[in-house]
Amino acid sequence: MEYLNIFRKKSIPIGVSVSHIHISREHLDKLFGEGYELTPRNYLTQKGEFASEEIVTLINHTKKLENIRILGPVRDRTQVELSRTNAIRLELNPPIRDSGNHEDTPGITIIGQAGSITIIKGVILAMRHIHMSPKDADFFHVRDSEIVQFLCGEQRRLIFDSVIVRVNKNYVLDFHIDTDEANAAGINTGDTGYLIKFSRGLSNKKESRRERTLITETDVLAHLNKGEKLIVTKDTIFTPLALDLARKHNFV
Ligand SMILES: [Zn+2]
Description:
7 helices, 22% helix, 3 domains, nine-stranded mixed β-sheet, Barwin-like endoglucanases
């Protein structure tokens, strides 16, 4: 039997990412000058992460996208995260990738206030994901890299599939999607949603109790054949035929 668990006891905050870039130390030097330091504009939910005051322009041949913000702090590699709408505007078709995976991704030209660079890869559509601590992972019965579903929105309620779980002791519980995905569900940063998980078998105590409490005629017969006594509690429910049979054999 397959169960659909909606973890309604713990809502998850939603963070919508507008198209942005992460930058390496080397590339920041080229775009803004040697030794340049990013200026935090506002801090994000994940520890130490911030949107900076610095913005760049992205260019692919004749197509241009302005006012793309740099997220800090600097990283090992430069990465450009676009919504699909913005990728289409730039005539690019980047694949959906987990952050840091640049295999078979297109490049782009980035212009800053002091210079420009052209990267040969690193443009991605970010895979939607949920950040969580090991404690949260325990609560939701999930592991790092597990794929789950996420329920959100009201009038445009959606269940997002293919959501990757990211577990790290430094992570704060947050569901991350881009502007296209958020717009499809009519949701904004600060809204909340629920993790959904499909699982096989008895998934939690409540359901397992419910499952065990319904006794059918077949159950009674099975116990009779094995010569076992039925364990009956106040939560046990019998079908009418099962109750007749159980009474006949002094089970209840
Ligand atoms: Zn994230």
